[in-house]
Amino acid sequence: MTSMSDPRDLQAQLETLTTEAFRPELAEIDRLPTLEIAALMNGEDAGVPAAVAERLPQIAAAIDDIAARMSRGGRLVYAGAGTAGRLGVLDASECPPTFNTAPEQVVGLIAGGPAAMVTSVEGAEDSAELARQDLDALHLTPDDTVVGISASGRTPYAIGAVEHACARGALTVGLACNAHSALAAAADHGIEVVVGPELLTGSTRLKAGTAQKLVLNMLSTITMIRLGKTYGNLMVDVRASNEKLRARSRRIVALATGAPDEEIERALAATDGEVKAAVLTIVGGVDGGTAARLLEESGGHLRAALEASAR
User: Fold this and answer.
1) What digits encode the pLDDT tens for the residues 119-155?
2) Which DSSP string corresponds to 56-93?
3) Per-position b or e across 172-200, b if 16+ CB within 10 A of its CB
4) Residue 77 and residue 89: Cα distance in Å, rounded?
5) What pLDDT is attached to residue 19?
6) 95 forms bridges with which residues in the sheet?
7) CB-hemisphere CA count at 13 Å for 144?
8) CA-CA distance, 12 to 15, in Å (whole number)?
């Protein structure tokens, strides 16, 4: 069911949000030369990483809790509307090829469903009930994490997702770009990256969207590091699904082992293209079957498997 709030109430709410604030000094931006507008945008964007840096302790705390649950088989679920939802879907969709996660391990939910990735779905963001339905389809468990994403911090779909996930015992994170947001208040971990008013009034796909992308990069990437999906800064769980990724796999094994090309090719052939196992056969001096067993026993952590192979 779509919320039927009084439009005047909504307007009053928006007027209190930093992300919606009007900047009179930019009222004639359309009359500036293109290079000056580009310079203004670039200057605005430069402040986003600093705003993210102010929230690193909250981000790190959320990641540790997410990783603990995912290590027990939990899932990471993003939920948002519009730009926020699209960014969540984007981050989720990049995890399988980058970290060899199963498609259901990191999930992106967008208000209005897949069609909302490319077109506006009328009223979807205003429905907390729609968020509950989308989450119920996933059969949440206490090991799952739901990250509600909303620049304003007031989007009913994102808040509804977090509140419903809390009721199901899941971990919750609220990512917003306004202080004192309802979304952050509803979540176990509130992350409010305050980037200030946008160059175009209320266009939160700009600085707010950039801030959300940076935080989502951290949530997924560092969680995967904690889960052993990397070896140092090498993506040893990369899925070689095309020629470029097959070449990257060979390069990763080379960087991790220093082995000659012929040995790398033999190792990858013996391990069905699995980079971790290939590294383990070379560095640990074990065969493909033993490498697979050691990795399974170490929970997929290559460093731990290498230590075990040396015993």
Assistant:
1) 887 677 788 999 999 999 999 999 999 999 999 999 9
2) HHHHHHHHHHHHHHHTTT--EEEEESHHHHHHHHHHHH
3) bbbbbbbeebbbbebbbbbbbbbbebbbe
4) 9
5) 86
6) none
7) 25
8) 5
H or E segment at 175? Answer: strand 171-176
Scanning the structure block, which residue is given the tokens 């290498």? Answer: 306
Rg of the chain over CA atoms, in angstroms? 22
Is residue 153 within 8 A of residue 192, CB to CB? The reply is yes
What are the residues facing 171 on neighbouring strands? 145
Summarised one tens digit per residue, pLDDT across range 216-270 is 999 999 999 999 999 999 999 987 778 888 899 999 999 999 999 999 999 999 9
Query: Using a CB cutoff of 8 Å and minimum separation of 24, what contacts does 245-253 make?
Result: 245/97, 246/273, 249/273, 249/275, 249/278, 252/279, 253/278, 253/279, 253/282
d(CA 286, CA 198): 56
Q: Which two tokens stand for residue 184?
A: 């952050």
Cα dihedral 39, 44, 49, 54, rounded to 10, equals 150
Which two tokens mark 98?
């980058």
Q: Which amino acid is at 128?
A: A
Q: What is the DSSP string of 95-132?
A: HHHHH---TTTEEEEETT-GGGGTS--TTGGG-HHHHH
Determine contact, residues 100/238, Cβ cutoff 8 Å: yes
Give the residue numbers marked as catalytic. Answer: 94, 125
